[in-house]
């Protein structure tokens, strides 16, 4: 088991290197000259070739391509992601840390909503298969899965905030500001996990161990909770764990709809301002989060499932 964990950790290192390299390459494929963009953002009245060369030297853009990548990678390992073009007095790491708490608050609230709603509803849909409740729930799941998050956010804002005047439309500061954006982010994930949990439980109900448990005369409640539900949740651990980085990255649109001051709002404003260091650091952060949570929950699933532990 220890060898498997060490092997999984070591396999994540080259994946992180590939992500960092692709992130660096794609940002540098943008046709605009970063030095010229930095000068325009700083509102330099006259941009000359001498000024561009000076800024290129300041930003280290005059070095060869791979040297720039390795220098950037080493700085990232030290926690130094560069300087923001928009405000040279602020570091990229400082900007990310400034906006990260708001995004974590939104993603955390969304994750709680996903867990609280998807698990019991998915279980009830499996228990009462093909009932009226199951059919209505599956119809709602089908509709909400097809609805984009920005449209859901605008619809909730129009109904709940403008028509009913129950919750604020934008900003943050109180728990009331958190409800609409958190529910908007979580709605598509709720639909996904309701369907996943329902299908897993129905599949486990057909297994032989359920038949043998019934033959032994075990109580239906024990069969359901200790066998069917437990085995069904094993296959959902990785999927639910991977929803954490998806929730963090998925807030980018919702944050802009509700004017939530998080990483998503920072990323969109950086895209419009062509603040390349911030965009680069954001993409690298999201990629690293996906690798990290996939590693953690893959190990947890292997430890909790005897079959996978035996294979490992």
Can you describe this structure in just a few lines?
This protein has 312 residues and is an all-alpha fold. The chain contains 14 helices and no strands. Helix 5 crosses helix 8 (175-205).
> Which regions contain 5 or more consecutive residues with pLDDT less than 50?
none
- Inertia-based shape: flat
The span between the termini is 6 Å
Helix-strand pattern, N to C? HHHHHHHHHHHHHH
Radius of gyration, in angstroms, nearest whole number = 24 Å
Number of strands: 0
Percent of sequence in beta strands: under 5%
**Average pLDDT:** 81
Q: Main sheet, how many strands, which sense, barrel?
A: none
Q: What helical percentage do the residues reach?
A: over 70%
Number of helices: 14
What structural class do you assign from the helix and strand content? Answer: mainly alpha
């Amino acid at each position: 088991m220890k060898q498997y964990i060490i092997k999984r950790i070591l396999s994540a290192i080259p994946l992180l290197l590939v992500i960092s390299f692709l992130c660096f390459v794609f940002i540098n494929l943008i046709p605009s000259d970063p030095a010229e963009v930095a000068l325009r953002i700083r509102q330099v009245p006259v941009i000359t070739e001498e000024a561009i060369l000076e800024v290129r030297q300041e930003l280290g853009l005059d070095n060869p391509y791979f040297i720039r990548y390795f220098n950037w990678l080493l700085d990232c390992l030290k926690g130094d992601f560069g300087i923001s073009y928009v405000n040279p007095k602020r570091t990229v790491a400082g900007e990310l840390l400034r906006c990260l708490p708001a995004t974590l608050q939104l993603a955390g609230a969304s994750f709680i909503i996903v867990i609280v709603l998807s698990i019991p509803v998915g279980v009830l849909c499996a228990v009462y298969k093909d009932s009226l409740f199951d059919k209505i729930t599956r119809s709602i799941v089908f509709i909400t899965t097809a609805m984009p998050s920005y449209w859901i956010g605008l619809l909730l804002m129009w109904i709940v905030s403008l028509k009913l005047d129950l919750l604020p439309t934008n900003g943050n500061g109180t728990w009331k500001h958190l409800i609409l954006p958190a529910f908007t982010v979580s709605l598509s994930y709720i639909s996904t996990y309701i369907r996943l949990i329902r299908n897993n439980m129905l599949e486990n109900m057909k297994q032989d161990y359920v038949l043998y448990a019934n033959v032994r005369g075990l109580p239906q409640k024990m069969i359901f909770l200790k066998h069917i539900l437990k085995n069904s949740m094993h296959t959902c651990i990785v999927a639910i764990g991977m929803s954490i980085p998806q929730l963090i990255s998925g807030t980018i649109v919702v944050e802009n709809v509700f004017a939530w001051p998080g990483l998503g709002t920072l990323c969109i404003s950086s895209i419009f301002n062509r603040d390349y260091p911030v965009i680069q650091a954001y993409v690298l952060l999201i990629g690293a989060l996906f690798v990290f949570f996939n590693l953690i929950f893959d190990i947890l699933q292997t430890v909790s499932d005897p079959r996978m532990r035996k294979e490992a």
